[in-house]
Amino acid sequence: MDGITIRPARSGDAPGIAAVHSASWRVTYPGIVPQSYLDGMHPEKTVERWRDAAAGKHPGAHLLIAEENGKIIGFETYGPAREPAFGYAGELYAAYFLPEAMGKGLGTEMMKTVVHDLAAQGLNDMIVWVMEANGRGRRFYEKILGGVVIPGSRKSFDIEGAQIWEIAYGFRPLPLLK
Predict the structure, then answer these.
(1) What does CATH list as the number for 4-171?
(2) Where are the domains of the chain?
(3) Which segments of the chain have a pLDDT < 70?
(4) Three-state DSSP state, 109
């Protein structure tokens, strides 16, 4: 993609990653996640978390960013599956993009790097958890990457008293390795 660099994150990228994280949640999850939670998402609250992630403080996890003209416009984090459930070795932990970067193929481009890196680590399949009501994310994993919902994967978690349901998509073998 012209003018866009995809590279491993560095600690100094944390403010930009935090900004992408907050902005992406605010446009992706209205009506899914309580608005009060979305309104309370401010990048400065998560900068340290992303600085730790970029510095490699989470063993096995990788953080990849997309940058355009020095501005971080998206990120994906991945590594070994956090839970051994369903028998998948690798996991895409998160993928978020600025609203203006969505729908332009950047997720697919970044995913190529992710799956090649997972395969190089001997992780030959992947799971990703998606909020069940996130239609855009689900379409990406189904139609672009060819993922299938893993039977029995539906589970919920709580955000400010709201029950949020998520499902897992499985990729066996990894997509985009052709």
Answers:
(1) 3.40.630.30
(2) 4-171
(3) 1, 177-178
(4) helix
